[in-house]
Amino acid sequence: MRHLWAHCLLLLLLVSQGQGVKALPTAHLNQSCRLTAAETATEPACSAELNLRHIQLLKRYMRPELDACQDFYAYACGNWRSVHKMGESAMSLSGARIDQRYVELFERLLHVPRSTEHSLPLYGKLLRYYHSCRALGKPRLRRYLEQLPHIGGNHWADLLAVLGRYGYHEHYVKIEVSQHNASQHMIVVMPHNYYLNLSLSGSIYNALRRHTHGQLPSLKQLSEQFKQLEQTLQEMAQPPNGSSDEETVSTYTLEQLQQELPDLNWTHVLHLQLGAIYPGSYQLLADDLPALRQLISYLNRADARLLQLYSWARFLQHLMQLPHNPLSNPQPSFSAGSATSCVQHMRKTLYLAMNFAYERNYYGKQRQADEHVIFGVFAELKQQFAQQLRLNVLGLNATLLDALLDKVQGLRINVGNLPRNVSDQFYEECVQHWRVGNDFYENHLNSLLHYYDHLAELERTEDAAMRQVWFSFNHHGPELLDNIDATPYFYCLGSIIIMPYAYMQLPLYESQFWPALLYGDLANTLGHEMLHSIDTYFVDYDAQGEMRDYSDQLVLNKNYLKAVNCLNDSEHVMLNERIADISGTRLALNTYMKDPLERRHNGRLYFVQFAQFFCGEEADIYHDTGSKRLNYALAQMPEFAEVFNCAPGTPMNPVSRCSFW
Ligand SMILES: [Zn+2]
Predict the structure, then answer these.
(1) Which of 92, 238, 509, 609 counts the highest number of beta carbons within 10 A?
(2) What is the pLDDT of residues 461-487, one digit of tens each?
(3) Centre of ligand 1 from the C-alpha of residue 580, in Å
């Protein structure tokens, strides 16, 4: 749940004055600034006022009476919960502030018809979309089905291809356009995804019943029929025991595919879904031809009506499960069309247009200063990272080491996730064929259509300029789980780090921060994401996003295995986050805090600022709780123990440590 950030400066100063003055001594802080006066909005650059105000905020979250060497999280974040609600973290508060800015923007545009934004079609479309979402009443799922284009006949593959236009392709036979490496998309054909099932809800059943004018078995009977169908499909799609790890994806020409799987007209199906006639020599990827052959043969003989109903039901379920569909918003504080739920839905569904509006109305003013600072810190980290790798403490062979160095040198960064250096015309052309009317259901489907049409075009285009722009950032799709705009992340196929708008504001970042504050979070966050590029999973992608066998080589290295095992005391899925935390923190410290004098005067502030990202962070399927992550990472750093005078053997200064990259 998201809540508005509400802090009162006056209150904040009063509260923090009573706290221990020594918690964060400011007398000898390094006050150097990466920006010149010309690059900032304030005089002087990196004003003491801005930095001291932020330090007061940090003190507000601290409990300096506690022992930092016992539990640094309790020391640095101990008061967080008394200030913020359950579930709130610095990142979630930041995301909520961005949602609020969008709401303000749209509400202003709705009420001020003479605003300059109205002259750009992009804003008009966003506004109509917002309005149609705000007007939503009770969910009427059959409206989605009514929007589907009419297709002659009742062949399962035709309906499937039509649903594929909207990005849905999980059952029967999957045809998907997906990103293949840093500069290429490909068409992929796969058997029925038996990991996903239909759970036929009352609302989906009612939508089907209305759509078929009541010509439907009972809910119970239909559920039973669907279950049997799923069972049969799973038996055909699931590989026999023991062979599920085998690599079965291969490249085929369309002609070869047609010969191998003659029971489906592939040219016709691809045309229907992707809007183009592909030549016989066209190359695509296909997985498990025997399973596909069996599935197609079965589906061609099965009850066409049942297959159609199942497709509709799965499509509706998919739409309802798309992240931030306001119709399925589980948060009781939102009504279906609340301003915030509409904005969150639009941020996900209308990715490029929404980011453009944010850039133009809010972020654009600070971009230049931010890029100057962030690119500078990123370059320092990269250089340090390469230097550390060259020491080759794990004793890797020269070829592998060179490949990893290449990868590190090739890492890119994108602030805010729009392509860089494109004109307004680029965005005008992007939204030209995007249709928006007054009906939410129609708008939602048309937006999906617009996004997936674009992917299909990107896959087949030979326009080098177009490819270059579109592969310069991560134009992520509406189905990507979690609100990924909410946190920095490493995108392995593009070998690119995305720093979302939500990161680019207080309390995590400000271009005018003094070094301890700036590096305290930014260098650690960048370090963390950079280390993901060589964590145990992503290490296999090279600088161009191609899959390699680097981890096969690494597991033959005893030092590497020892390092992994040292960190791996929790769920395997957490391991890579732990690697990124620890090695990223090490990288940041090596970059900024090598000088003992710098540590003495700036160390405390640096570590307390580092803690901000973790205050209030709860565990999820990939991450430990913020407290566990923070304490674990810093206990691994002797510099932390030095700065806080931790006696050997205390929790934050353990006798033995793990070391990795
Ligand atoms: Zn991570």
Answers:
(1) 609
(2) 999 999 999 999 999 899 987 655 778
(3) 6
